Description:
2 domains, two-stranded antiparallel sheet
Amino acid sequence: MSDLDELCLLFDSELEKVEDGRALDDLRVRFLGKKGLLTQKFKELGALSPADKPARGAELNRVKERLQEALAQRQQALEAGRLSQPTLDLTLPGRRPRLGRRHPLAQVEARVRSIFRSMGFVVETGPEVETAYYNFTALNTPEWHPARDEADTFYLDAERLLRTETSPVQIRVLERGRLPVRMIAPGRVYRKDKPDPSHFPVFHQVEGLYVDHGVTFADLKGTLLAFYRSLFGEETAIRFRPHFFPFTEPSAEVDVTCFLCQGEGCRVCKQSGWLEMGGSGMVDPNVLSGVGIDPEEWSGYAFGLGIERIAMLWYGVDDIRLFWENDLRFLKQF
C-alpha cells in the first residue's frame, strides 16, 4: 500500500467521525491546510527527479480532488440533516412577546410637556442646524462672547452650526409678531463637551418663554414654583441665585429643595439640601427690540432646564452616558 493510500484510509476513517461543521473544518485543515498532511506531500515534490515529478504530481492532485469532493459531500449531508430537524418544539410553552418601553428621557420630557401645557404653554419646535444669528446674535450674544468660540460650538461652516440651546426657537416665534407668547421649546442641543458622568456632547433642553403686558419676575417665580411642585411634590421650595445670561436681565440660577432628602442634606445634593436645575431671568430689552417688539410696552421672562438633569435625579442615575448607550439591560428598568 502506498503512502497516499494510507493517507486516504486515514482521511476516510476520520471523516466518518465528523458530526458538525466545526469538526469538518478541523479535518479540512488537518489534511489540506498550509501544514496539512497532503500539503506536506506536495512540498516533497521538489526533492524528486524531473522524471518522477509528473507522475507523482498527477497522483497527488487526484487525491486532493478526492478529499475535497468527500468534504463537500459531508458538508451537504450535515446541512441537510440540520435543515430536516424540527425548528420548533410544539410541546414547549409559548414565549411572551418582549414589549418595548419608552426611553427614560422621553418619559421625563413627556411629563415636562404635560405640566407646562396644563399651565397654558404651547410647544414650539425649531431646526437643530441653526444660523449664528438665531443662536447667538439675536439672543444678545456678541461676536466676542466666549460662548461663540469654536472650542464650545459645533460649526458646520462660517454661519451654520448645531444649536447650543433651544433658545433660538423663541426668536423665531417672536419674529411672527403674534403677542402675547407663552411657549416651551423642548429639543436636542449640542456642545463640545468631553463625555464624562455629568457631560455629553448632545443632550435635551427645554426653553420656556412668556411675553405679555406687565410680566414681572414674580410671575417667573410663580411659574417655576408651580412646575417644580408638580414635578417633585407639593413640599418643594425654590430659590434664585444671581447669575448672568446674555439674553436675560436680571438673570438667576434656579435651585429646588432636594426631593430625596427633603432639604435635610444627602449625597445627591452634596449635603446642601438644594439641587441646581437651570437658568432663568427677564427677557433682555435688546432681545425684544431686535425682533421689532417695543420693550416699553411688552415684557417677559425666559427659563431653561435640562431633561437629562431631571432624569438623573428622578431615577437615581449617576452617569449621563447611560442614557445614550442603548443598553437594553439599563433601558428595560424604566
